[in-house]
Design goal:
The chain is of the alpha/beta class. 34% of the residues lie in helices and 21% in strands. The chain has a single domain, classed as Spore Coat Polysaccharide Biosynthesis Protein SpsA, Chain A (Alpha-Beta Complex), CATH 3.90.550. Strands 1, 4, 5, 6, 7, 8, 9 and 10 form an eight-stranded mixed beta sheet that branches. A two-stranded antiparallel sheet has the order 2-3. The mean pLDDT is 88.
Length: 197
Amino acid sequence: MPDPIGIVLLAAGRGTRFGEAAKMLGLLDGKPLVRHAAECAVAANLGPVAVVLGAHGAAVRQALAGLDLRMVDNPAYAEGMSTSLRCGLDALPEPTAIIVMLGDMPRIRPAHLATLAASFVAADPAPAAIVPVHRGARGNPVLLNRALLARDLTSLGGDQGAGRLLAARTDVVELEMDAAVTLDIDTQAALIDAARA
């Protein structure tokens, strides 16, 4: 049986473009955005799932009640995404591969995660990362090979995600996927559009 693949769900950001309300708690199909993502991560059944909390942490934690998750508080969330990514990785020391999900991408399904995982397991040699692509644009979630990226990931700062690291590497596999991998909800208008789709 292959080693488990961990999932880090980033849900700590302030979501300032969304307005006064907490973006992660915005309702789509009657459910908070972050719960869509968390339920997907759990349903994929790939390995442990860690959710990184920050802004609106107590309310996000409550929105995820009853799910089998490792909740991680990031006291430095205001410094940017890099701190949340490190918190999530530290919470899952066992898996050698980690899928990084964003809490504002509600149309990601377990099949997206399973495809990333299967591609990683089948690859020889193992790539640094597997990145979904839709019509030429890189999206999320992204699978990271911890063994190949460990030193680079610790060097991230501020609001940097892994994208900057991967842009310079040649050992990244791109997988064509559907539009869900490029749909994130940053504004109230985007949430309304997603509800209509």
